[in-house]
Amino acid sequence: MLASLTRHYHKLKENNAFRILLHPRVLANYHRYQKEQRERPLVMRSHPTGVEIELTNRCNLACVQCLRSQGLKPYRLGQMEFETYQRILEQFPWVINLSLNGFGEALMYPRFFDVVEYTRRKRPWCKIGIYSNGMLLHTERAERLISCGLTELNVSIDAALPETYCKVRRGGQLPVVHQNVRNLIRVRQRSRSRFPLIGLNFVLLNENEGELVTFVEQAADLGVDFINCITYAGYDWGFQNRRTVDSYRRELDAAAQRMEQLGIRCRSFPSDDLSWADPDRPFSCPFFWGENFRVTFSGEVTLGCCTPFKEMYTYGNLLEQPFEQIWNNAAYQRNRALAKQHIVPNPVCASCDRFSKRFFQLHGSLSAETPTAPGSPDGTH
Fold first, then answer.
1. Which of 211, 238, 15 is nearest to 124 (CA)?
2. Which of 34, 156, 181, 374 is the most buried (most CB within 10 A)?
3. Contact 212, 255 (CB under 8 A)
4. Would you call 371 exposed, middle or buried from its count of C-beta atoms within 10 A (0-12, 13-18, 19+)?
């Protein structure tokens, strides 16, 4: 009990979210949601506490790891009207963690700062964050980012060398991103503000093998608040992993040692658990209960993982039905029932399941002799 209270206290302190204590119904939903996440009922009485709302799916880069770059789907580009955002946010009165992302660059949304300021007024307790490629963090935006009410900014880099960055995040320039991050931190220091917290993301790809330690050193030099190291597993977009388990092990061990030496905080780091890549692992996915939850720019409700976001599987549209009706509709209940029986509920989920299970089969071994490897699938933008 004491450990749980301490953990919650530090979360509130880090995000300056003590105002949530003034909203008992938000806290009640949070505790009910945590309980239902463990029990996994077919009918949820709680709302998801974390929601991702896609303001736009337009982007200024053409990253090699992005779904669009694989040419797997006819992509309908668009952005959410500000009034539509207001309607959608109204349907999530208990949200605690809000991400303004999807498959696009959030800073390309024309009224981005209006959205953040509006959300801060309507949900003062809420953690509001974005993922960005960092190319648009010029001086004018830096000033607004400090003052608009944003809690967290994650800059996705995925490389340490400029030539690798150009291969992975096509259309971008690593020196520009580094300079933008430095400038943002300088503006934040000048304003004497704690927010937004600034982090850098590194997704382990074929192209950036051997660059994680240098990335850690660069992050420490920039003075960011944290970093994230994430695997590519679970993204069934035509990606073919060429790295072995040993390759991951060597790089992760070296990076962990360097992070300890430099005193840099890593909030997401692959674990030793390889069960997600075990070919005999029974299907199990928490996303049907809202662990990751997304609303597209057009109002479609999807799971928060990346594979069903091919716009092949939607549970309903928030502009046509209220969330209360969608959240426990026949499709959700059917898929929850099947997932509880370890049955893959649809072809889209089946492709994700197969992809994870064969991630290391061609180039690595899942034997007990290799104790350290990437952890559970995660997402970045």
1. 15
2. 374
3. yes
4. exposed
